[in-house]
C-alpha cells in the first residue's frame, strides 16, 4: 500500500477528518489529527446532519460504525416544515409516516455533537492532538513540516480538513472562495420549550425553513432540547 510506513496528518477534527482517520486506521495507517479546539467539549457543535446512503452512511458502514450511529441518530429530526415570514405552513413533512431506518431514500439525521463523539471514540487513543491551532507549513524532505501555535510536527502526507476558511487551501489551489451574496448568522436557543415555546412547537422535533423576500430563517431541533437557528439575508447590489 502506498501509505505503508508513512505518517498522515489530518488538519481539522470535524466529521470529515475524523471519519477519514478512522478509515485509515482500519487499514493500519499511522494517522494524527490536529484540532484547534482545546478539547472535545469546549464548544457547541452545530445543527443536525442528514447522512445519505451513498455517502455519509456508506462511510460509516465501511468504518464499522453503523450500529453506533443507529444508537445515536434522532428519528423524526428530518421532518421539515416550509413556511412564510408569518409562520404560515405551506409544506409539512409531519403529515407523512416515519420512514424506517434502512436502505432507500431515507436520510437519517444525527446531531453533530453525538456524531463527533462516536467518531472520536472509535479512534486509537492519542490520535487527536487538541489545542493544535494550525499556522503554516512548508516542504521538508519528502514530506511537510507543520507549524502550530503550540509546536511543530512532521508528516509525509497532509490532509486539509479545516473547513471553508482553510489555511491549507491556498497551498493546493489559487482559486479563492467566492462570497455568494448571502450572509448567515448562526445561534442557539437553549431550553427552547421554556424560552421559545411557539418556535419549539412549530419545529416539533424537526426543522423549519421560513422564507420572506430575500430573507430566511432555518430552525433545527436538537436532542438536548435546544434549537439551532440560521438567519440568512441577501446582500444589496447595484447591477
Structure, explained:
With 239 residues, the protein is of the alpha/beta class. It contains 7 helices and 15 strands. The protein has helices spanning 15-26, 56-62, 66-72, 112-122, 169-172, 192-195, 197-203, and strands spanning 7-11, 30-34, 48-50, 80-84, 89-92, 109-111, 128-129, 134-140, 143-148, 151-155, 157-160, 182-189, 207-212, 215-221, 227-234. The strands form 4 sheets. A 6-stranded mixed beta sheet has the order 5-4-13-14-15-12, covered by helices on one side. Helix 1 (15-26) runs parallel beside helix 4. The longest helix has 12 residues, at 15-26. The protein is globular.
Task: Write a short abstract of this structure.
The protein is of the alpha/beta class and 239 residues long. The protein has helices at 15-26, 56-62, 66-72, 112-122, 169-172, 192-195, 197-203, and strands at 7-11, 30-34, 48-50, 80-84, 89-92, 109-111, 128-129, 134-140, 143-148, 151-155, 157-160, 182-189, 207-212, 215-221, 227-234. 22% of the residues lie in helices and 33% in strands.
Amino acid at each position: 500500500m502506498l501509505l505503508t510506513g508513512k505518517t498522515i496528518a489530518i488538519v481539522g477534527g470535524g466529521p470529515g477528518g475524523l471519519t477519514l482517520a478512522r478509515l485509515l486506521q482500519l487499514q493500519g495507517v499511522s494517522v494524527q489529527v490536529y484540532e484547534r479546539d482545546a478539547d472535545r467539549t469546549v464548544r457547541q457543535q452545530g445543527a443536525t446532519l442528514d447522512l445519505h446512503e451513498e455517502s455519509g452512511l456508506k462511510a460509516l458502514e465501511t468504518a464499522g460504525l453503523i450500529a453506533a450511529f443507529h444508537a445515536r441518530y434522532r428519528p423524526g429530526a428530518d421532518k421539515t416544515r416550509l413556511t412564510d415570514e408569518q409562520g404560515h405552513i405551506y409544506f409539512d413533512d409531519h403529515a407523512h409516516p416515519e420512514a424506517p431506518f434502512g436502505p432507500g431514500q431515507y436520510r437519517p439525521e444525527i446531531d453533530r455533537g453525538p456524531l463527533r463523539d462516536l467518531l472520536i471514540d472509535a479512534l486509537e487513543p492519542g490520535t487527536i492532538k487538541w489545542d493544535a491551532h494550525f499556522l503554516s507549513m512548508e516542504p521538508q524532505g519528502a514530506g511537510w513540516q507543520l507549524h502550530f501555535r503550540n509546536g511543530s510536527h512532521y508528516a509525509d502526507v497532509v490532509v486539509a480538513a479545516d473547513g471553508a476558511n482553510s489555511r491549507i487551501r491556498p497551498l493546493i489551489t489559487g482559486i479563492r472562495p467566492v462570497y455568494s451574496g448571502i450572509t448567515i448568522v448562526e445561534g442557539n436557543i437553549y431550553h427552547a420549550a421554556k424560552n421559545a415555546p411557539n418556535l419549539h412547537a412549530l419545529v416539533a422535533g424537526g426543522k423549519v425553513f421560513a422564507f420572506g423576500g430575500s430573507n430566511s430563517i432555518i430552525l433545527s431541533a436538537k436532542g438536548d432540547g435546544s434549537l439551532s437557528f440560521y438567519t440568512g439575508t441577501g446582500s444589496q447590489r447595484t447591477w
